[in-house]
Amino acid sequence: MSHSHGNASSANDPRQPSTAKPYIPRPVSPEDLPVDYSGFIAVILGVSGVMFRYKICSWLAIIFCAQSLANMRNLENDLKQISMAMMFAIMGLVTNYLGPNRPATKK
């Protein structure tokens, strides 16, 4: 049992390295990129966390901001949206945890 994979596989290799071309992605305009739904959801949740004082909305907005930041395609537009959503989320958390308490509902 001789293991001569090096010589036998290189002689029968159908690939031609001289004709290989590197992959060059086509340029895509920012208008043609898909919508960043996680960034949009982060803005909606951040605003609702601030306006309605829901802690869960503010925490979910931070999670969706992190997801949108990880999947960012267009630096300029996405960064504006993510930073706005993050500001709303942080503002909601600050007002929920450090602000005055909501008045209790009377029965």
TrEMBL record:
Residues 1-19 have a biased composition (Polar residues). Residues 1-27 are annotated as: Disordered. One of its GO terms (biological process) is protein insertion into ER membrane. It comes from the Eukaryota. GO terms for cellular component: endoplasmic reticulum membrane. It is found in: Membrane. One of its GO terms (molecular function) is protein folding chaperone. Keywords: Membrane, Transmembrane, Transmembrane helix. The chain crosses the membrane at residues 37-70, 82-99. It holds the Pfam family ASTER. InterPro entries: ASTER. Belongs to the Asterix family. PANTHER family: CGI-140, PAT COMPLEX SUBUNIT ASTERIX. This is Protein Asterix. It comes from Arabis alpina. The lineage of its organism: Eukaryota, Viridiplantae, Streptophyta, Embryophyta, Tracheophyta.
